[in-house]
Here is the input.
Amino acid sequence: MQVLVYGSGQLARMMYLAGAPLSIEVKAVDVSTKAVVHPISKAVLNNDLEQSIAAADVLTVEFEHVPEDLLAQASASGKLAPNMPAILIGADRVREKALLDKLEIANCTYEVITDVKQLEGITSRLGERIIFKASRDGYDGYGQWRAKSASDIPELVRQFVELDLQTVPIVAERMSDFSRELSLIGARNGSGEVVVYPLSENTHYEGQLHLSVAPAPDYTDELANQALTIFTKIANELDYIGVLAVELFQEGDTLLVNELAPRVHNSGHWSMHGAHTCQFENHLRAVCNLPLGSTHPRTVSAMVNIIGCDELGDAPLQMSDTHVHWYGKAVRAKRKMGHINVNADSYAELGQKLLGLNSQFPVEYFPELGPQAELLLSK
Amino acid sequence: MQVLVYGSGQLARMMYLAGAPLSIEVKAVDVSTKAVVHPISKAVLNNDLEQSIAAADVLTVEFEHVPEDLLAQASASGKLAPNMPAILIGADRVREKALLDKLEIANCTYEVITDVKQLEGITSRLGERIIFKASRDGYDGYGQWRAKSASDIPELVRQFVELDLQTVPIVAERMSDFSRELSLIGARNGSGEVVVYPLSENTHYEGQLHLSVAPAPDYTDELANQALTIFTKIANELDYIGVLAVELFQEGDTLLVNELAPRVHNSGHWSMHGAHTCQFENHLRAVCNLPLGSTHPRTVSAMVNIIGCDELGDAPLQMSDTHVHWYGKAVRAKRKMGHINVNADSYAELGQKLLGLNSQFPVEYFPELGPQAELLLSK
Here is the structure.
């Protein structure tokens, strides 16, 4: 089986590693050069994309911001999974919001801003605290603006006047008073089979995911059922094939959908060592229409992102059931360089292990590690 | 870190997969062509072996039968681990026996046959049941002969007369009345740190390993200590760096060493999903002088070899915590094509899962699966 992945970053890399044992050969498309590259070495394997498309059994994506002409070419082959409309929904908050409304899935109240005039009186409609998100091409906190009170609006008007809101509208959302951020990763294959992983609890810092804990602590069946219902509604509606990530806010006992990602997701990396089948393998199984693998958690797990830092010393190698994964990238500020998966038999033990790492790690790169570890001690 | 592995089979392949997350790039030497190849795709990366030796940080082996001129060249670089004498001991039963005797490690009584005349009266010295093993280049039952009684000896004399016993002596061993075959996989790094995995119990069929169960059932501390002592004596004596496999016979409460393999070993593949750190990662950690990883078993595990068969259907994909690994080889009779790791919470559950696979698999390729599964049910 040959799978061609659009995008040649760490997600394609981890698909390659998960595919090899299953005799699934994964190659990656560098979408800037259109060259087909080896997902690990990045060596160019073929400069003729059409030829590689013809040779592949399945085409898929590692990110939703693939240029639309490339997506259209991929889709025309009849081999693209998930399908192009599903990918575009993940790439466009306006389409995403329309889907959620159509399916009557709870999400934060919003307005689509195509003209700065719409900012007039917006706080009376959405509340004082509003988050503005570019509808396309935003990620990791880029393309986002916040209003903490009505007095912030005039400055935003000045900024938005410079933007082409007709081409890239902004979605203005009531800022959620969530108690925590969760995500649900699941997969659906061509036979309509659906599996979901346990919810993970995610900690962000300056717009980037820093830590995921799975299964999320204090995780009721009721919460799990809500999440499963949301996932199944969306995946069935889109005739979705592959892994789909649903980012959620928990407000009281209710889950609101924040964002969809039509792909494997950073908050699912814990599954590489913490679940019976990892998200990368399940994505490949889904797009190759193989039976989906068990998503059962082995233990409790934390995934710690390594961001902007390329040297951690031996601490994670010396800790039991702790797995470092470097992505082989040159270091840059705010760049995701790798992650560490830590498994433990209880949340308290997990907290202890994270505290152990925290005591060895440079705090500037891991500002949330200590505080989150402390919280786990009492779970 | 760059590691060059002599040998380009499945063991180098699995080292590559284990190395990538640690930023250890593994390349393989096809010892027949001397080309450096990608361990997964087998694409030639470099035809200049000397250049690749110079570029590598560490050289290692995936099998002990590397041509001696290549080993000498590798050793001369000062980067080879394990060291050449240790590799040669694994490749030569005469040296291996001498080492065991020197270290006073129990093994089967033997004689080194360099002249057929030595077969005269041999059954009066070693007993009626004798196994004769070529001292070099034998594997998977090749280069072995058995005598079940003194009356078999004349036929063996006729066969051995044709061989150059001066160049490749035969080791004649009393055939052990072992209750079972076990193996101990462990690692030692350059700092002298030693870790060992739990003993695995191995089932062979026609000279090939078919099944390993780890930890071995009915596994006493006393047995574990014996095994650890044996491992540590050998590894320290050889100043061994890397993973070393010790094949053992259990006779009553005593362990006898059958063979040494100076490398990762088929009976350790269960560790890929059944232990905190797999043998391939620990081999790389050892040769790169990193701290060794925890060898703690997650659950109980079985490794089922896929031999001579390239199609198994969906059964292993549909079973929880069951992992298929294909080696990407063209099918041939008796060829190891891949393996399946099965994890379970108890031996009885493991037996049930293996019975489940057995009911779906072609019995001609898995003759030991059903009987061994039945035995596990009562453990």
In short: Chain A has a mean pLDDT of 96.
